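ok so i was messing around last nite and threw this chain in just to see what happens. nothing serious, just curious
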Amino acid sequence: MIEQQIDIPTRDGATTTFVAHPERGGPHPVILFYMDAPAIREELRDMCRRFASVGYYVVLPNLYYRSGVLELGPLTDDNARARMFELMESLTIPKIMADTEALLAWVDSQPAASPGSVGTVGYCMSGQYAISAAVSFPGRVTAAASMYGVRLVTEAPDSPHLAGGRTKAELYFGCAETDRWAPLEMVEELRTAMADSGANAEVEIYRGAEHGFAFPQRAAYDRAAAERHWERLFSLFRRRLG
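result:
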């Protein structure tokens, strides 16, 4: 496997990005991996490596680069958590879509990256960004997954729950049964919106799981649910990306 950390130019500066892909074969289908609120860390890099191990070119950008932050480290006190929420609130869908445009332009210049269909996946705060990418880049993003995503149903005109009527990409929403950030009431609104729009989408509730269940270093980690989420993502990307 080949790994590198590089600065990719964007409209607002440059995002330090972790890239992993198989050493041989290719070009490899691209997956854009959007980080969760606690920022870049080895846990996320390991997840990228797992995608790469089955044949994908995985790109994990630092979404906090505008604030000059790469890694937050352990969130051991209220001040650290407050800083995390401050950084999270500094992001918007338009900002991350501008970053996505830059990332796609960069991968198009890489011989090991396939120029064809792209997949996106986002966790927690970034579930909305993974889904929005399917709307913003309909010619490229053919599969998008949100894992325990937040703010999927809002009053904004770019709310992710409206994506079903705006993209032909296959969408997957993996939702925790217990999630104060994305309660089941919101999940049911999302499910209804997807059905009403005729979207190619699945909304799945992971029974018994809590928000953050896919992250091995979290207290909420649920091995069975995490492995099921990997099966769902691998199946989605295999169908749509090859």
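not much to say yet. The chain has six helices and eight strands.
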